[in-house]
């Protein structure tokens, strides 16, 4: 069995429809457990007070905002190299999910920043690169909508995705190589000795797993919708030809 | 309800805004998915009928 079998729209739809119930249920359970655990059963931070509870939404959404773009990059490259339509449609399907995740990260960051930094917004490297990433998402969605020919749209959006990846990388690593920013370093890291305390990191891991599953569920479902929308266009074109 | 102290508005507004956006995303995704699926099935049966 090869992964390229899923480039067949029928095979993709048949397989994803089987796993969708588990993905929806898994994401709902993990997000509910993680947020209830984080909101009700974690202590206040000695400096941030109860605002630390915002981390359970801010970090998973920021994680998905960046990784959604990377998923789009990979599927766009598959489109460019192998010309699989499902791949291009998966990238298209992921963009609105990515934009919502970016908005959640920006909003929760601003709401947290107001009492902690004394400002809703600062032109900090990470915040600014995140804002640029948000604009790239909007541009990407607009480009898909603006071009009638789906193959041309997939080609051009793939190039835009490649360019936008610079800002996706920047938004992830900006805090590491620009020291003048307000934004603190990563809350969780594999190569760092000091992470947030277990009391916060355990529910945070559950929320992150929930957001990952939700992202996969949404992208599978939306890709199925895009495949069907494309089939509708093909059937209508056929009807017009026969009329 | 935990005691959120002086930051209650901050924390609650962050949760409300985020959950609202997540629910809206899921609802709109499923709504559009069902609409497109219905349209496709109608069109497919019409094409089959007309040969």
Automatic annotation (TrEMBL), chain A:
UniProt keyword list: Cell inner membrane, Cell membrane, Cytochrome c-type biogenesis, Membrane, Transmembrane, Transmembrane helix, Transport
Report TM segments.
21-42, 54-81, 93-113, 125-144, 156-175, 203-221
Q: Identify the domain of life.
A: Bacteria
**GO terms of molecular function:** heme binding; heme transmembrane transporter activity
Tell me what topology the record assigns in the membrane. Answer: Multi-pass membrane protein
Keyword presence, Transport:
yes
Tell me the ranges covered by the Cytochrome c assembly protein domain, including all copies. Answer: 15-183
User: Gene Ontology cellular component?
Assistant: plasma membrane
- Record has Amino-acid biosynthesis as a keyword: no
Q: Name one Pfam family in it.
A: Cytochrom_C_asm
Q: Name one GO biological process term.
A: cytochrome complex assembly
Where in the cell is the protein located?
A: Cell inner membrane; Membrane
Q: Which PANTHER family match?
A: CYTOCHROME B_B6 PROTEIN-RELATED, HEME EXPORTER PROTEIN C
Q: Indicate the family of this protein.
A: Belongs to the CcmC/CycZ/HelC family.
Which function does this protein serve?
Required for the export of heme to the periplasm for the biogenesis of c-type cytochromes.
For this entry, the protein name equals Heme exporter protein C
Q: Which gene encodes it?
A: ccmC
TrEMBL record, chain B:
This protein's major location comes to membrane
The record describes its membrane topology as: Single-pass membrane protein
The record ties this protein, via InterPro entries, to: Haem_export_protD_CcmD
| UniProt keywords, alphabetically | Cell inner membrane, Cell membrane, Cytochrome c-type biogenesis, Membrane, Transmembrane, Transmembrane helix, Transport
* Name of a matching Pfam family: CcmD
Write out the transmembrane intervals.
Answer: 12-31
Q: Which residues form a coiled coil?
A: none
Which superkingdom is the protein from? Bacteria
Q: Where in the cell is it found?
A: Cell inner membrane
List GO BP terms, alphabetically.
cytochrome complex assembly; heme transport
Q: GO CC annotations? A: plasma membrane
Keyword Membrane carried by entry: yes
Per the entry, what this protein does is: Required for the export of heme to the periplasm for the biogenesis of c-type cytochromes.
Q: Which family is annotated?
A: Belongs to the CcmD/CycX/HelD family.
Name-wise, this protein is: Heme exporter protein D
Organism annotation: Leisingera aquaemixtae
Gene name as annotated: ccmD
